[in-house]
Amino acid sequence: MRDMSEGTPHIVGLGNALVDVVAAVQPDVVERHGLTPGGMHLVDADAAHALFDEVGPGVRQSGGSVANSIAHLAETPVRGTYLGKVANDELGTAFCDEMTGMNIAAPVAVAQNGDHGTGRCVVLVTPDGERTMSTYLGAATTLMPSEARAALPEDFDVLFIEGYIWDAPHGAAVIDSLAQAAKSAGAKVALTPSDAGCVERNLDVMRSTVSRYVDILIGNHAEVGALAGCEGAEDALDWAMTQVSVAAVTEHEKGSLVADGDGRHHIEAAAVPRVLDTTGAGDAYASAFLAGLVQDMPVETAGRLGAESAARVLGHYGARDGAAARAIALPAS
Fold first, then answer.
1. Which helix (H) or strand (E) holds 51?
2. What does the pLDDT look like over 72-93, one tens digit per residue?
3. Most exposed among 19, 90, 159, 198, judged by the fewest C-beta atoms under 10 Å?
């Protein structure tokens, strides 16, 4: 798989940089901010700041889909670099410090304009254990092509793109710029479509990018199916393999289908004693799958690594193990 002739395998991720903030609250806090208990909400700057000011610092942990995938590389022999955008604020500093603390390079762009804070997902945990999420994308959506290009390393093996980037005002230009640069550098381009809704909002440009640049497609059956215009993991994989060299289509407890030019394989889901939370399982799968590929493992082996990594995430709360994941598991005080 590798085109680089020397050095440690290197994956660069492009995504929306977020910080997860977990706070224990009483139910009236959820109600007062107009949130639906147990729901996921995308909020504007005013609502985000009002909520954050009330719940306080909470327990923090860097997040975002591809950021999670790159963070998981810290557990592998593969080098990771993360590209995104944060604000010049406390959460932005926390995001960068956590990534670099895991030996993940994070040459993120920093928004100096006070109009946008660092993106954050505030997770409100009530005494009954219910988790209500409020997400503000903030500075993440202001990433410009020139900023992303300036942060891109010279040598790397794979550029891994988060589909949510297309939802930003300059997202399509950012993706196009980095995909072109990756090809010029001899690197592969990998894509996760992010979710079926993201695909539907950006179908034409996403399909165009897949046909022009993408070598590796990784997503669940709903995402890839939306991109393919079909239903079912088998049909989604069939379509994917007319577009890319390598594909992985996951299907929850049914496992995943992986394929390359040498054939396709069904990968059983790894055993999980108790599923606590599915958040981030796909991020972990993608990380291990790509890590296997850049280490020249067969696609079937990479798929098994992906399944094992996903299973570890299913066994705890949150997309990554850590202080924030443990805080979600605790009842509010």
1. helix 45-55
2. 999 899 999 999 999 999 899 9
3. 90
Eight-class DSSP state of 127:
T
Overall average pLDDT of the 232-237 stretch: 95
- 277 pLDDT higher than 80: no
For 69, 89, 96, 213, 236, the CA distances from 225, given in Å and listed in that order, are: 22, 39, 35, 19, 5
End-to-end CA, the chain: 51
pLDDT tens per residue, range 239-271: 999 999 999 999 988 999 999 999 999 999 888
CATH class of 10-17+64-112+139-328: alpha beta
Other CB atoms within 10 A of residue 293 CB: 30
| Both structure tokens of 286 | 């993608």
- So what's the pLDDT on residue 4? 40
Question: Going by DSSP bridges, is the β-strand pair 216-220/79-83 parallel, antiparallel, or unpaired?
Answer: unpaired
Angle of CA points 91, 92, 93, to nearest 5°:
90
Burial status of residue 174 (CB atoms within 10 A of its CB: 0-12, 13-18, 19 or more): buried
Q: Are 285 and 307 in contact (CB under 8 A)?
A: yes
The tokens of 251 are what? 């299907």
Domain boundaries, the chain: 10-17+64-112+139-328
Confidence (pTM): 0.88
What are the φ/ψ torsions at residue 149 (nearest 5 degrees)?
Answer: -65, -40
Q: Strand, coil or helix: what is 185?
A: coil
Dihedral over Cα of 112, 114, 119, 124: its sign: positive
